[in-house]
Structure of Xylulose kinase:
Amino acid sequence: MEHGHSPKPPSTPTQPLFLGLDLSTQQLKVLVLEQRDNSTSNNLNSDDDDDGLRTHSSFTIHFDSELPLYRTRGGVHAHAQQGSGVVTAPVLMWVEALERVFEKMKRAGFPFDRVISISGAAQQHGSVYWSSGATQAFETLRGPSSESGLVETFKDAFTVEESPIWQDTSTTSQCEEMEVFLGKLENLRRRRSGATTTVADAVAGEKEEKGIRLLGQQRLAEVTGSRAYERFTGSQILKIVQKSPEVYRSTKRISLVSSFLASLLIANFAAIDVADGSGMNLLDIRTKTWDPALTRFIDQGGRVDESTTAAEVSNSLEDKLGEVDASGRKIQGVLSSWFVSRYGFSSDVKVVTFTGDNPATVMALRAERGDAMVSLGTSDTLLLYTDTHASINLSDNDNSAIANDKGEQDANSSAAKLLSVGYLCHPVDPNGYLMLYCAKNGSLAREQVRDLYADSNWDRFDQHLREGMMEEGGSGGGVGFYFFDREIWPPVQGVYRFENGVAVDEFGQQDADANDSAKRAAANVVAICESQFLAMRIRSSQREEAASSSSLNSPGISRILATGGASSNRVLLQLLANVFGVPVVSMGTDDQQPGAGSAAWGAARKAYLYGRQGAVGSTSRKDDDRDSGRRRSNSEGSAAILPDLAQTKKYVDRIPEFLRLEAILL
C-alpha cells in the first residue's frame, strides 16, 4: 500500500484538475483540486467564485523516511561542525522528491491528462544556486523524450549542493553589516540634506556605531518590510559572497525554493514571486523591485562604502536574481515535454507563479482585507491582510526613535514596536500587504506550562483556563511572560511573573491561601495564554497609538481565522476572541475537505484562479485586485466564536501596564 496517498472520491472523468505543490521542510506534497459536478467546471473562462472546488486526492513524499540516502533529520542537515546555526537541505533531495511524487501518482492511476494548471508553495527564505549546467539540464527536459531521471539530469546544475534554509541562524554578522550599511547611507543623506541633527550628533564615540545600526534596522524595515533576520535570503547570499566568492561568481541564477520548484517544471528559470521575494531583505516592497543599494552591497561582499555611487561598482546580483513577478499571477510557462511524455500530462498545462507557504495559506483561507490569520502551532503566527505598509517614516530631526542618550533604542518607542513585526507583499493583490508577527514560544511553551501545572493533561489545562477566565481578574491580576526559548520580541529568555506590578517568583505567594496549588496552576495557565494573545494584539496594531487605543475591537482587524493544531481548542479560541474583541472562526475542522486551509490547497486554488486562461508570460485573469472568493460570513465553515466584550475591555485596560512590564524585561 502506498504511503502519503489519499483516496480519490467519485468524480466525472472529464472534470478539470488543478495541482498545488508544497515543498515544506519535511515533505513534498501534491494536493489536487477538482470542481464539483454542479459547478461551472465546463466554463474555464468563468470568473465565478471557486466554491465548487473540492479535494480530489493528495500525495506526499516524506524526506526522512522515503529518501533515506540523504540522511536528513526533519528534512534538514544541521552542521554543528561548521559552526553554530548552520542548517541546510540537499537540493538534489528536492529534485528527486519531485520525480518520486509523480511516480507515486502514476502508480495510483492518477489522470494526468485532466490537469489544466499547476501552482505551488514552498518554505520561505531558502535559496538555490544554479550553475551554467542548468542550461543543458533544461534543454534536456524540453527536448525529445529522455530516459534520464531528474537527479541524473540536474546533478551538475547547482553551485551549492546544500541550500541554506529558514532554520539557519549563522548569518548574524552579515545582518549587522547590512543594517550598518543602510544606517550610514541614511545618516549621510541627512548630512547632505542639511538636517540639523544626525545620529553622529545625537550619540558619540562607541555609542555612534550602535545608533547607526539602529537607524539601519529601521531603514531596512521601511524599504524591505523587515529588519535583518538571519534566516532571510539577503544575509545568506552575502555570506556566500564573502566566504565562497568563487562559488558566487560561477552562480548563474539564484532562486527561492518556490521559484526553483517552478523552474524544474517549466525547464527554465522561473521568476521570483513578489510575496515570497519580500521575505528576502532585498525587495523594495513599495516599488516591488530589487533595491539597488542592497543588491550592490551584497554583490560586492559588503565592501561598498556608503559614499560610493551606483555607477562606480558593478552589480551582478540583480541579474542573478532575475525578474520579480510583481502581480503574483503570471503564467511562467507550460509544463516541459519531459513530464508530458513520462506521465501523460497534456502538452499545454500552464504553470502559475509559485509563492511562499505563508502567502499560499492566505490564498487557501480566502482571506479578505481586515482578516487576521492566526496559526497556533509550534510558533504562534499572525498574518494580517491590510492595505497599508506601516513604514517608520523617520524624521530627519528626530532621533528619539533612533537612540537614547545611552545609544540604545527605547524599547517602548513606535519604531521599536514596528521592528517586532514584518511586512510581506500580498501574493496577488497589488495594493495589499501581509503584516507578519511571529512568536517563537507558541504551542510548545503552552505544553511546558501544561506539564508543570496541569499534570501533562490538556483537559485539565482547559479546565484551569476556563475557570480562570470566569474569575473577575483572569489570572488574578498577574502578568506572566513565558519565554522558554529566546523570543524574537522582546529578545529575552526566561519566565517572568508580576503581581500588582511587582516581580514575583510565583503567583499567589503573598496570599493567605498560598498553598492552594489549584489557584496557582490556574493563574499560570491563564497568564501564559493571556500574555501570548495580548502581545499578538499589540503587535498587530500597526501604530503605537492604535496599540494603546481604548477601542474594544483590535484596530484594523474585523475577524480572526484560526489555524494550526490548537485551533480546535474552543476554550483557547474564546480567550483569543475576548482579547481581540472580534469573532474567531476555526479553519481546522472541515473534515469533508482534506487539506483545506493548507499551503498546498492555496497553491492549487491559485492554479485554478490564474491558470485557466491567458497567454504565457501574462496575467491570466482580468486585471482586478480580487484575490479571493466571495466574502464568507463569520459563521461559515464552523460556528464563529463571539467575544465577551466585558472581558475585552478588561484586556484593553491592561495594555499600558503590559507594555510597561514588557519594557522592564529589556
Summary: The mean pLDDT is 84.
